[in-house]
Amino acid sequence: MSRGFISNRIGVDTGGTFTDFVVIRHGEVEIFKELSTPQQPDQAIMKGIRRVEGEPAREIIHGSTVATNALIERKGARTALLTTEGFEDVVVIGRQTRRELYNIFVTRPEPLVPDGMRFGVRERTLYDGSIETPLDEPHLQSLIDRLRRQGLESVAVSLLYSFANSEHENIIFQALEPLRIPISLSSQILPEYREYERTSTTVINAYLAPLMSLYLRRLQNRLTGSALRVMQSNGGAVQAKTAADAPVRTILSGPAGGVVGAFHVAEACGYEKIITFDMGGTSTDVSLCEDEIKVTHESQVDGMPVGIPMMDIHTVGAGGGSIAELDAGGALKVGPQSAGAEPGPICYGKGEQLTVTDANVILGRLLPQFFLGGTMPLATDRIEPALRKLEWTRGWKSREELAQGVIDIVNNNMEQAIRLISVERGHDPRDFTLFCFGGAGGLHAASLARGLGMPRVVVPRHPGALSALGLLLADARKDYSRTLLMDAGGAAAKLKASFGELHKIGLAELQAEGFKKSEIRALDFVDLRYRGQSYELTVPLGAHFIDTFHKAHERRYGYSNRGRTVELVNVRTTFLGRTAKPQFKKAPKQRGRPVPLDTRPVWIDRKRVRAAIYDRTMLRHGHVIRGPAIVGEYSSTTLVPPDFRCLVDAYLNLVLET
After folding, report:
1. Are 275 and 435 in contact (CB under 8 A)?
2. Which of 165, 250, 480, 657 has a Cα at 20 to 30 A from 401?
3. What's the rounded mean pLDDT across residues 214-232?
4. Half-sphere exposure of 444 (CA within 13 A, CB side)
5. What is the reported pLDDT for 259?
6. pLDDT digits over 607-630, tens only?
């Protein structure tokens, strides 16, 4: 059986609060959740896998937060850096730009490789790949002897212009092999110019490699009979061994699954321009998709540049578990700290700090009978006693006023995140549909859409597990690049040779992943700029790619200069291995009105109203619900305010419109 047609598959998305599972067997989709176990994520995974009856899954696709958390919390490996002598401090010096221009107290994040662990190698390769100073191998051996005494767990190697000639990095790799620790070469991780970004990306990979390798190896050993694949930041899944060797490519593994899932569902349902809104227990991820999923090569994580292709996703610390408290000035703030899965919100039975989830319970919006299908009781009676112990909560007239304040602040934080990826980049959010998912998203989406002037909100089926579904919708993807730095007008022969080499590598690697040649396709791109510029635009390779660049430059910056020399900086190719995907079928239209289960008092926009309660599993294509209403289901709850109505479309999505 080819890689593209595996039917018995499980998508597993590990979040800060819940681990989500989507099982596809014989064309049917099943979903369920387990509380995450942040200290050992594989415990929650194995607990969920054991719930799946029948024969073991042939394939498990995993969205992991292990690399992300290790990087942000600085819990990676003890790492050394070998670089060209005289350039040991490149990762500390960085660029001239400052993140906070007017903050005189700003501090830089500490480098992942501290002073004393960065070593200069005597060698020099020039920009054209020629060797000016041969590698001093006796000096290299003396450095390796010092490394042996350092108790290292990983090594990063990033030499000047190794993208043009990797000979010296390859020799260093062979010399380091006896250490029997992971070795990351910049000529393999990111063979592009700009030594700071290349070195930073290579160091991050080395810093994460031992941890990810151990985690994925342990998980694969426990998954007897099932192949393990891991989601990458670019929206494609790869074999676990590939992910372990290049963990820097998995930093956005979890959020990427949600964007892939939302994009595929939106495309099937006819929505071309969407803003994805994924609100989980710990954070909110937003991304803008206009006919395609946007990928960037200029990401940063915790102030460190990451040069490999990553989805253009913006994350804020605003989730259901975000903790509300007073700041130093006595003002109410929400997040970025989260109660997570342990201890969790107050209403989960252990928490002692007020969270966004607790605020929604206070306002009557979160219904215990729907929460995880009633399998996880909400301890709503714990909220009032817990709040009495928090002295700062006594400054509000009522619990509802406090809860509304929490909701207003977290909504504002999320609205600012959406403005950042839309308004601040030249897009009008009123032209887009807000595609809402995540366990907490449906309770906040309508308010965000109203504030941004967006015409509609779409809540897909299984919104609380869409990220896990996205893992099963993702193709395999591998990105390759190479720096050329030459005039674009006379680059035809070099382009042909470079893409030929990259295509040979890409085809071989995807075939090694189990894909047939007929299931593989390549997409080619070039990075271009006007000579003298220090930034590039990526455009598809075509017969008239220079003309395409002029038009792209005019669209982005408001002008073009067709008489100016265009420089070819990088060539890029993306290899995709197509996987079989579940089909989204239209449901027959039903006549009649949906019947609410009940009505209950709910606080919406500081007013107490009676809202109709609906069970989403009872809703059919063509049903219309007028707000105020609450639609409950296993993985999420959707709030329909009084000024909205909710339509059920042919794909059983909930479509909220004013």
Report:
1. yes
2. 657
3. 91
4. 29
5. 95
6. 999 999 999 999 999 999 998 999
Could you tell me which residues are beta bridge partners of residue 296?
Answer: 310
pLDDT level of residue 3 (50, 70, 90 thresholds): very low
Phi-psi map region of 339: left, alpha, beta (phi>0 left; psi -120 to 50 alpha)? alpha
Contact 477, 546 (CB under 8 A): no
Rounded CA-CA distance 61/238 in Å is 9
Strands 322-326 and 332-338, sheet pairing: antiparallel
User: Which stretch of 186-195, 268-277, 294-303, 648-657 has the lowest confidence by average pLDDT?
Assistant: 294-303
pLDDT band at 6 (very low <50, low <70, confident <90, very high): very low
Query: Residue 523: phi, psi to the nearest 5?
Result: -120, 125
Average pLDDT of 141-147?
94
CB count within 10 Å of CB 331 equals 8
Quick check: 102 pLDDT over 90? no
* Mean of pLDDT values over 648-658: 94
- If phi > 0 it is left, if psi is from -120 to 50 it is alpha, else beta; for residue 330 that is left
What's the CA angle centered on 195, arms 192 and 199, to 5 degrees? Answer: 95
Q: How far is CA 420 from the centre of its chain?
A: 17
Residue 1 has pLDDT above 50, yes or no: no
**H, E, C per residue of 68-116:** HHHHHCCCCCCEEEEEECCCCCHHHHCCCCCCCCCCCCCCCCCCCCCCC
Residue of 135, 38, 9 whose CA lies nearest to 83? 135
Cα separation, 602 vs 610, whole angstroms: 6
Tens of pLDDT, residue by residue over 163-211, are: 999 999 999 999 999 999 999 999 999 999 999 999 999 999 999 999 9
Q: Are 310 and 299 in contact (CB under 8 A)?
A: yes
Strand-pair partners of 604: 607
Q: Is the Cα dihedral 99, 104, 110, 111 positive or negative?
A: positive
Q: Using CA atoms, how far apart are residues 470 and 263, in angstroms rounded to an integer?
A: 9
Q: What is the CA radius of gyration of the chain?
A: 26
pTM: 0.89
332, amino acid identity: L
- Number of other CB atoms surrounding residue 386 within 10 Å: 18
Cα 296 → chain centroid: 12
Say whether 177 sits in a helix, a strand or coil. helix
As a whole number of angstroms, the distance between CA 297 and CA 536 comes to 11
If residue 204 lies in a helix (H) or strand (E), which one and from where to where?
helix 195-222
Question: Which of 153, 179, 187, 4 minimizes the C-alpha distance to 75?
Answer: 153
Phi-psi region of 385 (alpha: psi -120 to 50; beta: other; left: phi over 0): alpha
Longest dimension (CA), the chain: 84
What's the CA angle centered on 646, arms 640 and 652, to 5 degrees?
A: 120
Omega of the bond prior to 343 within 30 degrees of 0, cis?
yes
- Beta-bridged to residue 492, according to DSSP, are none
* Contact of 560 with 241, CB cutoff 8 Å: no
Q: For 549-580, what is each residue's pLDDT tens digit?
A: 999 999 888 899 999 999 999 999 999 999 87
